[in-house]
Amino acid sequence: MTSSVTKPNTIDAILRACRLMLKMIGARPEPRRSEELYYRMLGDYYTRLLKAPETGDFVAAHTVFFPSELLYAMDILPMHMETTAWMTALFLSDYAALLSAGAELGLKSEICSPHRGLAGAFSSRALPRPNVILWSNMVCDNTAKSGELLMKITGCPGFFLDHPFQQTEPETAYLVGELEDMVHFLEDHSGKRMDWDRLAEVVAETDRQVELLRQINTLRQAVPSPFSPQGFLELLTIDYLFAGRPEATEYLETLCHELTEAVRQGKGAVAHERFRLMTLFLPPMYLMGFLERISQEYGAVSVTEPFFCSWGQGRLDPSKPLESVAWKSFMRPEMRMYGALDDRALGEIAESARQSKIDGAVYYADVGCRHTCATIKLFKDVLDDMDIPVLTLDCDVVDPTVTSEEEIREKLERFFELMEDR
Q: What fold does the segment set 10-15+52-194 form as a domain?
């Protein structure tokens, strides 16, 4: 199943963008060391994917929230599909063409746009064919169904990881069984064996990374907040792409040190912090540069993202590596949006608002995401009870035809005025 039009290699284009970003960072008077590490990691990640056909690396394309620790322990090369879609929208200008290729396959606009774009990218060969497809039901029905379509498009074998909703003892044991089955699937198709000692090392690194993410989240609550207005997207990418990797630990340790020093000096991420914001869900990736600029212009900083950066409690045990991979999945911030909505989500919103002393919240209502749009009133009611205004922006995380920079600017400026007048 292929599209009628072949697109340029998306991986190569992302790499060119990473190299450009590194040049820009190096030209700054005071470059942020952690940012440089971040783009070097991205470059290395996509370089390996680009060269995989030459090196013979076994590539496993996987959906979001997948336990990539298992892949690294088996020396299997992961390709995070949604993040690759987001990077395409962030760095390139042709994501609409990938959506069009997805539309040729019959995918309607109501379907999550990253998954429509992924189908278009694989069918038009803008993304290289992986060796296997891995997917799960976290965190939505689009993710649960996309793997079957991508298997059909690529002709690859695949494995569906069935993740239970609750962290009860029977459900955790069930998830560990699912992970064991996935390891056997990967061993059969890759010819590689699981290195359990290496997995224990990866789990130890992941445990350290989760602790650092918690520390960073606390440091961001300082007034003024020391981290970049939209910097939380770096934190997402670190866990999505590099969980358990030593270079990710180096990045997080470097960032933690930078933020600690900034807090000690009373230095904020913007020249004059005026508005402390909560971000609910993902902003349009193709407008990230604009959102960073307008944040600097108006002194607005995202200081908390309850469903991205507020990790649950618990530690991982390297002596029980497979169980720890399962435990980590229940500690994820996004787990509060998985399954039946309960006080985990609503309570976290209220607690994050109090701890981070927010002035307002921006709710990015992704038109293709049923999870996001279904919770607008519930989440707004929680913040309304705390007398915190909420701006709802209808948008799409990667589709540039849904909303424009001009529309977003007009709505944000009015929201800033509203907060200023309070």
A: Rossmann fold (3.40.50)
